[in-house]
Structures are given as structure tokens and as C-alpha cells.
Amino acid sequence: MNESIGPIPASVRWQAWGLRLAFIAMLLVSALVQAQSPLARVESVGLQGQSAFKHFDGLQQQAVSLKLDVHAVEIPRQWLPGRVRLNAVAGTLRAREQQGAIVSIGPEWTSPPWLPVEVSVGLAPTWLSESQFAGDELGGHFHFTSHLAVGGYLDEARRLELRYRVQHISNGGIRRDNPGVDMAGAELRYRFGQRRPAVLRYASATDRPTRAGLDFQLNPS
Question: Which of 7, 133, 186, 210 is the most buried (most CB within 10 A)?
């Protein structure tokens, strides 16, 4: 017997509109940071689409992500090759007619540019507006998201990138219920222009000594 799903409740419709407005606000904030901040800028913006596997069948995530280039302290390359950025994500989790919000921000390491593909790994504290989806308990509202992304650029200017992304969400054992959610999907990223000219860099032992361990310098474009 076929059963039709009734009209979507008004609360769910308002929540969906609120999340769309949150996406727009996130893009506006990125534009403001890009234009005004002397010490940080948005390096790239991305769109994510992922689905759960193993458990929580039918759970899907759609999100906007911002990779924030914060150079108040720059890690010397001899310590850690590649780049470290802040990765902020805001989006929705949906299972059947239920929908909730997901927000996370944390560090992400990206491999050096001379590799044939770009590899990124990250870990971020995560907040979920719902602790249950489709009757299954997630284990509270506060979680951690670890991810691995592998991708390549689609143009010679290295602006547009397509990535395959795998992530795991769990509360790290801070609650008794901790089933964990594994998700996989695609991410399309657009990288903005050149880095800003001025940064604060952490002075390593081989650099000239500075008064507070921070050295103001100019970067070539």
C-alpha cells in the first residue's frame, strides 16, 4: 500500500529558510574578511554533498565550507611541509523528512602543491542541532569531525577543484551513546586570488631573532 507524505510542517520550512540565510551570511562574512582583514582572508569556498554509509542509511549532508588563511603565526615549512588552514563548515543534515543543522570549524592540513593530487586531512569540533535522526541516536549535540579529501584542479589557473571527501562524525566517547557517522561524497571548491602581501610569521631558530618571536615581512605575489 502506497502512503503519501503529508505537507512539510511549517517549523521545518522555516528551518530550511533559516539555513539558506545562514549560507548567504557565511558568504557575506567571507567577502568582508577577504576585503578588510590584514591578517586573514578566505582562501577558497566550497560546496559539499555527502551521504552516510554503514550506518544511518539515508542521512545526507549539504554544506558550504570556507578555508580561512590565517597567518598571524606561520608554521616554518621545515617543520611541516604543506599548508595549514582553518576549515569552517555550515550546512544541513537530512534523513527523510527530518532536517537539522551542522556547524564545525577546525584546522586542516593540505599537501604540498608539487604532488600530482591534493590531499587534505582535518579535525574540527562540531555542533549538531539534532541528537537523533530517523529514530537513531547520535549521542548528543557536540561532536568531532575528522575528514580526508583527495582532489585535483580542473583548470590551469588552479582555481576550480573537485575533491572526493570522506568524513567521520562522533562525540569522542564523551557520552555513552557514540555510534559514529561515516559519510562520503564530493566537494567542489573555488580558490580566490593571490595571498595578501603582508603577514606575521613565526621566527624559527635559524631566522634572525625578533623581539616577540613575530617577524613582519612582505610576501611576493
Answer: 133
Q: Are 72 and 97 in contact (CB under 8 A)?
A: no
Task: Give tens-digit pLDDT for 58-87.
Answer: 899 999 998 888 755 556 666 668 888 889
State which residues of the chain have pLDDT below 50.
1-6, 8, 10-12, 14, 35, 195-221
Asked if residue 83 lies in contact with residue 76, where contact means CB atoms within 8 angstroms, the answer is: no
Residues 184 and 60: their CA atoms lie apart, in Å, by: 9
List, in order, residues 6 or more apart from 211 with CB less than 8 Å away.
none
The per-residue pLDDT for 114 is 78
C-alpha cell, 166: 570522506
Place of cell 575533491: 163
Long-range pairs for 82-87 at CB < 8 Å and ≥24 separation?
A: 82/109, 82/110, 82/111, 82/112, 83/109, 83/110, 84/108, 84/109, 84/110, 85/43, 85/110, 87/122, 87/124
Note the pLDDT of residue 204.
Answer: 46
Q: Can you say whether residue 56 is alpha, beta or left, with left for phi > 0 and alpha for psi between -120 and 50 degrees?
A: left
Q: Which of 180, 89, 173 is nearest to 133 (CA)?
A: 180
Round to whole Å and give the CA distance between 131 and 119.
31
pLDDT at 164: 97
- Is pTM beyond 0.85? Reply is no
Q: Name the residue among 86, 50, 54 with its Cα closest to residue 68.
A: 86
Q: Which three cell numbers stand for residue 75?
A: 608554521
Residue pointed to by grid coordinates 567577502? 31
